[in-house]
Write a structure and sequence with these properties.
The chain is an alpha+beta fold and 161 residues long. Helix content is 27%, strand content 36%. The chain has a single domain, classed as Gcn5-related N-acetyltransferase (GNAT) (Aminopeptidase, 3-Layer(aba) Sandwich), CATH 3.40.630. The relative contact order is 0.16. This is GNAT family N-acetyltransferase.
Length: 161
Amino acid sequence: MSVLGRFLQPPGIRIAPLGTEAAGRLAAIHASAFARPWSSLEFARLLGERSHVADGLFVGRSAEPSGFVLSRAVLDEAEILTIALAPAERGRGRSRRLLDAHLEGLARRGVRRVHLEVEDANRPALALYRGRGFRETGRRPGYYLKEDGTRATALTMALDL
């Protein structure tokens, strides 16, 4: 099913493109969500490349994003590299709105297929992606190194827009 036409922004929520100026904030949000966070320099490098697209979730009148999604788009395909929300915004359905808006933007850029990978034990993320129509395309056993030194399986998923 196409995501086109599915997105509506509720009052007090704004989704907007992000540039390199947001790198520090994205690194802080990422660090709150992942065992292996990316640095602000890594975000600045990615955000400075033309092939990367980032959207931020802004709540209320805040000038800083409370969440973000970052993708790499090449021709008619894209890969979602990471998506994260600040702890205070999790569990409120805002990741759905953010992802829907991002997918709409990718579709407007001519993207027809979106790929991603996610840890097989990340139930909230799996529910989000499956709820948006992503389907499992493969498994990478032992792909992620966890904080405790164990390894977790990555699921690869894809969605046709």
